[in-house]
Amino acid sequence: GKSGYDHYMLKEIHEQPTAIRKCLRERVSELEGTIDVDALADLEHDGPVQFVACGTSYHAALYGAKLLRERGVPAQCFLASEYEVDAIPAIEETLVVGVTQSGETADTMSALRAANQIGAMTLALTNVVGSSAARECDHVMYIRAGPEIGVAATKTFASQQVALAMLSSVLSGEGSMEFVERLRDLPDQIQKVLDESNARDIADAYEGSDAYFFIGRGYNAPVALEGALKMKEISYEHAEGFAAGELKHGPLALVTDQTPVFAVIAGDTNVSKTLGNVKEVEARGAPVVAVTDSPEQVGQYADHVLEVPSAGPLLTPILANIQLQLVSYWVANRMGRSIDKPRNLAKSVTVE
Ligand code: M6R
């Protein structure tokens, strides 16, 4: 059941602290400051990594590829539906990682099969034990989010991000006591976001806008894309997410005083650049909502702030995303949408 929540989506948003604890269990050692994933013990790989995924899982994969590159592992990310349209980009030395909550998405399965066919090594990052992806791949790492009923992916996205953070440590051999401690603290920080969020007030203030835009740079760019996908999926409103720097290359033409811009500046190491983009939209009269762990630095440029605790550059974006999940939920709720089963969409997309 929904345990007293009006929708599965809201219940699952609130399950994120538990989901992350489960994802981390027996994989991070606080004593040693190490990250060890049993399921990956026999995965020996020092070549390039390619991610294939769709939708929200693709946004998690974008984040995972950034983590790997920062840690010195060449990594690329592909929409699964585009992976084999032209020549398949993998070579035998590539590790191809399918990020798929359900483990049944047809496009992702097809990309993984193609990778297996050319002799690349494959890994499924999935939530469902024994799913098609788990069976197809040479290796499997479970994200342990627990069943997700709402069509909108919420807790599985956070669990994918955390699983990818661990995977990137395993593959790069890089991980520090500090990172392990930050991972350990994440569930409590998520709880704090859930307990203190003012997302509902923001939804009240901006429901009925012409469109909703989301911008972010670096690790916050996938969060901007995800914020927009969630908004369009459950509210049926026009929403777009952009890497912050892209705004001035076209989308800025859409910005008016009727289009709130959510600027994700969380754990950001390029705050001044993203603030530059914020000033560009403000000059067009757009209301700005900053999603940030540095309100003292950013707040003066925003009409509203959705605050998150600091969890460092790699993990604070995970917290920012939770604020955006709540904004979408409350906008859709105010509009009376069918939140758990949005029109035209299915939980698991088994056709290509
Ligand atoms: O089961 P998967 O992770 O492979 O699903 C991929 C997408 O269909 C999925 O993430 C979709 O975008 C979500 N409904 C978005 O909330």
Rounded mean pLDDT score: 96
Number of strands: 12
Which molecules are bound in this entry? Answer: 5-amino-5-deoxy-1-O-phosphono-D-mannitol
Order of helices and strands: HHEEEHEEHEHEHHHEHEEHEHEH
**Shape designation:** globular
Q: How would you characterize this protein structure?
A:
This is Glutamine--fructose-6-phosphate aminotransferase [isomerizing]. Its main location: cytoplasm. The protein is α/β, with parallel strands linked by helices and 352 residues long. Helices cover 42% and strands 15% of the residues. The chain is built from twelve helices and twelve strands. Helix 11 (295-298) links the parallel strand 11 and strand 12 (304-307). The mean pLDDT is 96. 5-amino-5-deoxy-1-O-phosphono-D-mannitol (M6R) binds at residues 54-57, 100-102, 105, 108, 151-153, 229, 233, 348-349.
Name the features.
binds 5-amino-5-deoxy-1-O-phosphono-D-mannitol; alpha/beta; 5-stranded parallel β-sheet; 352 residues
